[in-house]
Amino acid sequence: MIEAVAGRLEGAPREVRRWSDEFKAQAVAESMEPGASVSAVARRIGIDPSQLFTWRRNARQKAAAAVDTARGESSTADIMIGDAVIRVNVGIDEPHLVRLIRAVRSA
After folding, report:
1. Model confidence band, residue 106 (pLDDT cutoffs 50, 70, 90)
2. At residue 89, what are phi and psi to the nearest 5 degrees?
3. Cβ distance 29 to 4 under 8 Å?
4. What is the Cβ-side half-sphere exposure of residue 71, based on CA atoms within 13 angstroms?
5. What is this structure's pTM?
6. CA-CA 20 to 30 A from 37: which of 2, 18, 25, 43?
7. Among 19-23, 77-81, 93-97, which range has the highest average pLDDT?
């Protein structure tokens, strides 16, 4: 009978890599370009696609938290896409914001 063992097998290599915030931001930005494939970007930079999806999710959560903070402190929020910075009213409706972001990305 084979028993399932939770945890790491003895002698299995354990490699932990640390990526800089700048590297993560660049990878996330590249993966969000129109027509970009997250899996292709991940393979090219040598990481697992699930890692890049995690970085993207974390970036979205960080941006949402920044907007929430901005709502309490001012009526505008800055959105950074690559080298572009978009300053919007925090009350902007989603369809307008989506059109604005698409316009900046395609420029």
Report:
1. confident
2. -70, 135
3. no
4. 8
5. 0.52
6. 18
7. 19-23
Domain map of the chain by residue range?
21-72, 76-106
Are the beta carbons of 40 and 64 closer than 8 angstroms?
Answer: no
Burial 2-12 (b: 16+ CB within 10 A, else e): eeeeeeeeeee
Burial call 27-43: b when 16+ CB within 10 Å, e when fewer:
bbbbbbeeeeebeebbe
Q: DSSP states of the chain as a string?
A: -PPP--SPPTT---------HHHHHHHHHHHTSTT--HHHHHHHHTS-HHHHHHHHHHHHHHHHHHHHHHHHH-SEEEEEETTEEEEEETT--HHHHHHHHHHHHH-
